[in-house]
Amino acid sequence: MHPAAPSSWLFAGKPRPGAPKLYCFAHAGGSATEYLRWGRDLPNAEFHAVQLPGRGSRYGQPMYASMEELVAAFVDEVTLSPQPYAFFGHSLGSLVAYEVTRALRDAGRPLPARLILSAFPPPHHRHPRAMNPLHRLGDDDLLERVAKIHGGIPQEVLDSPELRALVIDALRDDYRILETYTWREADPLPVPLTVFGGRADPTHGRLDDWRSHTSRELTVRQFPGGHFYLREEPGPVLLALAEALSDVRTPAPGGPAY
To answer: Is the pTM value of this prediction over 0.85?
Structure first.
């Protein structure tokens, strides 16, 4: 375990008193600050981007070798909002958000009022990458395989040795976490789930199976596009995100919630 200052985990968007906080967990190799841009077009939420070590302002910090280590560190070191809040995760970020929620339940801490997951199959399905791991490949092969399977890596990164070197360690670490992950059976979460996906993404046919992981309602929304559908046409995604957050109510500034 390698403690970090709690503030190093989170980047806050524009303060919005009275709006629910939305904590965003990024895809493999990604920087969650990408999701802070959504705050300009979604005024009914206060965005907080979760930044894992090894990228952005935490570049050079030791990364985690397993999901268990990552989740334990986050739960130990991050103080979440005392008011109702929600989690959003895309791809690997969905799995991290789900496991953090389970760890919060185990610790007897307040849970998110809604868990919004994107482009990731339910965790009881063995992920295909576990059977054909990418994290053991050489640097060039890893980048090229990930770009071919999922996209999401800008061409300027693929074309630049300097940029490739900046992203490869975080990408490899995240794929190691994904490919060595083992789901542990547990009771469904008492948290409503909203699950997003792209219709051309291979995960889209399995999203309904998240139903077994909640004792509350499950909402599944499909959008045009592939694994990174939310970059291709962000407008409808943001509308659906606003709808998902509409029942996450926080006290109005200066008064109680009704």
So the answer is: yes
